[in-house]
Amino acid sequence: MPFEGLDLYALDELLSPDDLRLRGQVREWVERKYLPIVSEHYEKATFPLDLAREIAAFGAFGGNIAGYGCAGLTALQYGLIMQELERGDSGLRTFASVQGALAMNAIHMFGSEQQKERWLPAMARGEKLGCFGLTEPDHGSNPAGMVTRAKQTATGYVLNGRKMWIGLGTVADVAIVWAKVDGLPGVDPDSAAAIRGFLVERDAPGFSAELIEGKLSFRAANTSRLSFDDCRLPADALLPQSQGLKSPLQCLNHARYGIAWGVLGAALACFDEARAYAASRIQFGRPIASFQLVQRKLALMASELTKAQLLAYRLSQLKQAGKATFVQISIAKRNNVSTALDIARTTRDLLGGVGILDQHQCFRHMCNLESVKTYEGTDDMHLLILGEKLTGVGAFV
């Protein structure tokens, strides 16, 4: 059955003709090009890289960036793209997020003019791919504890360390890698202030990437380990404007904003599936949609999804005005992921036994959202960010 969105509070009336046109284009593309193949890729744990340039055509890569061949979209338009991509699969939206919100934004915010001119136009077209190396095997929620090191040499830097859970790691032409630099004047080399960003190209000596296998979630996505063993980098590999842990965290704010919108797509896909199934599934001589318990579940899903939509829309207004704070972004990321996951679980429940089959979407979305709940700030970490704002007391250590 054709997809039907949920718009109980007439949010579509607040969208411009350009907003609606862009959303419609991405929605139609996901329906026509991605949904017919996602189950196969999910089963095989692969990602259709050949679609990169088609995704780029929507302005999905670095959509918030003006210039350098990027689309210069509004915050709302970028959010709508992320929503429609994740209606296909969280791995599809993550592909765009890693490329644009993380890798390209890092270059745009902290790179030299030469670095921007070299990488951003090609990445905006999907001709070059990037990844973002922050998380380490032993340092996830505490990135300040990273142990990856960069030592200055006469000609540049030598990088040593490991990164984990890196999207696009094995296919990226360039990795944005965060490391603590030894020997910075007046800076403790073990502190978060010593963190700088580096551009590590795929063929850099001492750099290797390995696909993470055995995933039960995010299967239609490229997730990798990165290793740096005396990896030699030229002096111009440094992102010159990067300064401490705050730099990668600024990139994460862009990505978390996209997640807050993206998971709405997964939730919409599941709700639409639940509503359609309830209307067509006959038990005890009538559609299960006629039973009170089923209607209660649908009503609760629709209510929570509507609240999440309103939260994302208001956040887009704040972001467009340059007023969105990291606390507001954390609230939206945590709330909307939690809401989407609850909707996916309830949909699987409503579908009964067939809900585990790949002919339906809910189980795949449910598994994916377990990962989205964890990455770029776990549910608990975002609660602590809000807790610190409310109380003035940090509770991270």
Topology:
Elements lengths: L16 H28 L7 H5 L9 E2 L2 E2 L3 H14 L1 H21 L2 H12 L5 E4 L15 E4 L3 E12 L6 E9 L12 E7 L5 E5 L11 E12 L11 H35 L1 E2 L2 E2 L4 H29 L5 H26 L10 H11 L6 H13 L6
Parallel strand pairs: 3-6, 4-6
Antiparallel strand pairs: 1-2, 4-5, 5-9, 6-7, 8-9, 10-11
Helix pairs in contact: 1-3, 3-4, 3-6, 4-5, 4-6, 6-7, 6-8, 6-9, 7-8, 8-9, 8-10
Beta-strand segment tally: 11
Helix content percent band: 40-55%
**Mean pLDDT across every amino acid position:** 97
Number of domains: 3
Major beta-sheet overview: 7 strands, mixed
User: What is the level 1 CATH name of the largest domain?
Assistant: Mainly Alpha
Q: Spans of 5+ residues with little confidence (pLDDT < 50)?
A: none
CATH names the topology of the largest domain as Butyryl-CoA Dehydrogenase, subunit A, domain 3
Strand content: 15-25%
- Tally the helices: what do you get? 10
Q: What would the principal axes of the Cα set say about the shape? A: globular
Question: What is the CATH homologous superfamily assignment of the largest domain?
Answer: Butyryl-CoA Dehydrogenase, subunit A, domain 3
Give the structural class: alpha+beta
Reported CATH architecture of the largest domain: Up-down Bundle
From N to C, what is the helix and strand string? HHEEHHHEEEEEEEHEEHHHH
The value of Rg in angstroms is: 21 Å
Q: Quote the distance from N terminus to C terminus.
A: 50 Å
